[in-house]
Design brief:
- Helix content is 45%, strand content 17%.
- The chain is α/β, with parallel strands linked by helices.
- The chain folds into 2 domains: 13-76; 89-184 and 235-340, P-loop containing nucleotide triphosphate hydrolases (Rossmann fold, 3-Layer(aba) Sandwich).
- Helix 1 (13-29) packs antiparallel against helix 2 (35-76).
- The radius of gyration is 31 Å and the shape is elongated.
- The two termini are 61 Å apart.
Length: 341
């Protein structure tokens, strides 16, 4: 099976028939074959080539299937980078959580360090914004906090519990991440919202929408909760897809909310709606927002500035602006961009 996955061109019926006719004509000129015999040979060729073509296609499909199966087996045999402790682990409490990074470092395989010696303590009910230039390590912090990856050194703890000791079902229930581009399925708004909590009723969904201040937005949709969002949410704008992700997160009711803020350009009215929903969603719970807009950092309780994998500044927005440094430069650049608009 060394040639698995290689497509072999089947016999061509027209070429075979043409060859028989040409040879038949040549032999017929010398009176070595009759017209009837030529037609008989042409008919027999069609009977022979058909099964050969089918057999060749079956062999090709079988080779492709074997090659694909080998790839699947290779993936299944790959050891998991993140292991669920299961029943041997310690569940998280149903309360706002404390975050601790103790000497955390991270590097991708064969790559340079992305995070270096991160020490961080966040009190419960704190709204923390993480800012920094592209590639500074902001999103890696969020992935470690939700245990999509494990640190290569140090430990990430919630309420004093190492995340490596927390069962997945407890972690996914108490910690929710809203990515930049939440995936929407080709179904109704209701069905997509239910991924936040599968047993939620229509009243629960409508209450969540109302608590986020999004009732007026829902009323603009043609069929309300029955509005179909299209494949990957193509029937909605980028901002509206983010609103659906926020409704999901509100239904999940997590103790820790991690948001990787979307960078998609939205109109001012929708941006205000998103900001209002975020304000209500993060109230009363610990939240960490990977901020791409400085307006998000301005509304946070604390701002964490990451540069080249290290925490270089921390404090309230106003204090960091006065301090200057990396945050002052980022804020000045953002203000300049806003004035151009």
């Amino acid at each position: 099976m060394k040639n698995a996955g290689v497509t072999r061109p089947p016999l061509d019926l027209e070429e075979c028939v043409a060859g028989v006719l040409i040879i038949g004509v040549l032999l017929g000129v010398d009176d070595k074959i009759t017209a009837g015999e030529v037609l008989a040979f042409a008919f027999l060729v069609t009977l022979f080539v058909g099964p050969v073509q089918i057999g060749t296609q079956v062999l090709t499909d079988a080779q492709n299937a074997i090659a694909g199966w080998r790839r699947v087996i290779g993936i299944l045999d790959t050891p998991a980078d993140v292991v669920d402790p299961g029943e041997a682990g310690t569940p998280l409490p149903d309360t706002p959580v404390t975050i601790d990074f103790d000497g955390v470092g991270f590097a991708y395989p064969t790559g340079p360090p992305v995070l270096v010696d991160i020490d961080l303590h966040v009190e419960p009910n704190t709204r923390l914004a993480v800012v920094g230039e592209t590639g500074s390590g902001k999103t890696t912090l969020a992935k470690l906090l939700t245990r999509l990856m494990d640190p290569t050194s140090g430990a990430v703890r919630l309420d004093g519990r190492d995340l490596r000791e927390v069962p997945f079902d407890s972690l996914r229930e108490r910690v929710v991440m809203v990515p930049q581009e939440g995936f929407l399925f080709d179904s109704t708004l209701r069905a997509n919202a239910l991924y936040g909590r599968l047993d939620a009723s229509d009243d629960d969904i409508l209450l969540a929408i109302a608590q986020l201040g999004l009732t007026d937005w829902l009323e603009t949709l043609p069929r309300g909760l029955d509005t179909r969002v299209g494949q990957r949410g193509e029937s909605l704008s980028a901002g509206e897809r983010q609103l659906v992700a926020l409704v999901r997160a509100h239904l999940a009711d997590p103790d820790l909310l991690v948001l990787d803020e979307a960078t998609s350009a939205v109109d001012p009215a929708l941006e205000m709606r998103i900001a209002r929903a975020l304000e209500r969603l993060t109230k009363g719970r610990t939240s960490v927002t990977i901020a791409h807009r400085m307006s998000t950092a301005e509304n946070a309780d604390e701002v964490l500035v990451v540069d080249r994998g290290r925490i270089v500044q921390r404090g309230p927005h106003a204090a960091l602006v006065a301090e200057g440094g990396v945050y002052g430069r980022l804020h000045a650049s953002w203000v300049a961009q806003q004035s151009v608009r």
